[in-house]
Amino acid sequence: LLMEVRLRDALKRQEFELYYQPQYDLGRNCLSGCEALIRWNSPDGLVMPDQFIPLAEETGLIIPIGTWVLEEACRQGAIWNRALATPVSVAVNVSAVQFRPALVNEVRGALDRTGFEPEQLVLEVTESVLMSDIEGSIRLLEQLRSLGIRIALDDFGTGYASLAYLKRFVLDKLKIDRTFIMGIPEDKDDVAITSSIIDMARHLNIITVAEGVETEAHCEFLRKAGCNLAQGYYFDKPLPAEVFSQRLQ
Ligand code: G
Ligand code: G
Ligand code: MN
Ligand code: NA
């Protein structure tokens, strides 16, 4: 209960902060965008999302927190892109509680208030979020994409979405879960699964993003396999906005 009260106050006190983990284009060898990841600068120190997002979801606080995340990510992205010849994309995680029809207006509001280009905003959803209401998800994805934004399927391969749904859910990006990347190149199964996801996505015209890229060997394998983007400790951990800004120069 104490935690819930503190979480409720955190928004008012502006204790949340977004960190940004760079995503690199493996073909062009350049920075292409980032994933925004929330942190809580609580009076007791830095708190990671695993420690408070589940409670925020249970209590419904994820709605105002999620609205803040969207607006803050768009505000920051708009500042970066005003100063850049080649714009960067910013990806925002969306939890199951947020994934409902009202999300369309929340996203539109954030874009309108900040002037962030819709094409540069990516919403990350997981398979379980989409599968809980398949027909509703198909409609919502269509409405979100008609705003001009992009949709990424997060942690791909760990949920239970059948491949048939890749046809019905209109997606722009697939994020290959880091549990598959970890075993590359030693684990033949991980190699086979990762290569197959990349090939399948290419044929479906979907951009691939490898998560948890930690070594040169991961990177080399993914580049040769034709993976589009990579994110992970090999390049950078999630960074405060000022540090990410330096990476852009
Ligand atoms: O760095 P990492 O510990 O940042 O993130 C852990 C988990 O928290 C990830 O699964 C990520 O999707 C989730 N997460 C991070 N930021 C947000 C956010 O802004 N909103 C939601 N709903 N989840 C987030
Ligand atoms: O949204 P998602 O569940 O994909 O959240 C990304 C999570 O992965 C965050 O907690 C982030 O800090 C973490 N992460 C990012 N890069 C790496 C990496 O290279 N290795 C590992 N183990 N975790 C990573
Ligand atoms: Mn994510
Ligand atoms: Na993920």
Automatic annotation (TrEMBL):
It is found in: Cell membrane. It comes from the Bacteria. Residues 1-249 form the EAL domain. This is PAS domain S-box-containing protein/diguanylate cyclase (GGDEF)-like protein.
